Amino acid sequence: MDLLTTFDISASALSAERLRLQTIAANLANARTTRTEEGGPYQRRSPIFIADPVDPFGDQLDRQLARVQVADIDVTEGAGRWVHEPGHPDANAEGNVLYPDINIMMEMVDMMTTQRSYEANANVLDVTRELAQRSLEIGR
To answer: Would you kindly state where each structural domain of the chain is located, as residue ranges?
Structure first.
């Protein structure tokens, strides 16, 4: 494993976590969206991460190293939650409105986890950059 591989792995993780944060923000922003272009309430989204091996034919350590790739964005086909709001423009005949099945508290926990993962990968990049600079100084 070399420094460029470390940069590559951390950069892929940063990109994946950035996308995860964007989907969480979209979920939070649309937690009360009852009408979408597709019809019905907004559906929760979450990225699906996969491991992309750096060197599948390398030694034991190299086979364990992997970049993070986003395979897909999963759209949760939830039933939603019904809320009695007779004055709402999307209320049915009984006065109930179908809202997205998004748990704000769980989204906030996901956001904090994503932030910590992003910070950890940013720290790896900083340490790797510092190691590269020190290596260059030794060579002088």
So the answer is: 3-138
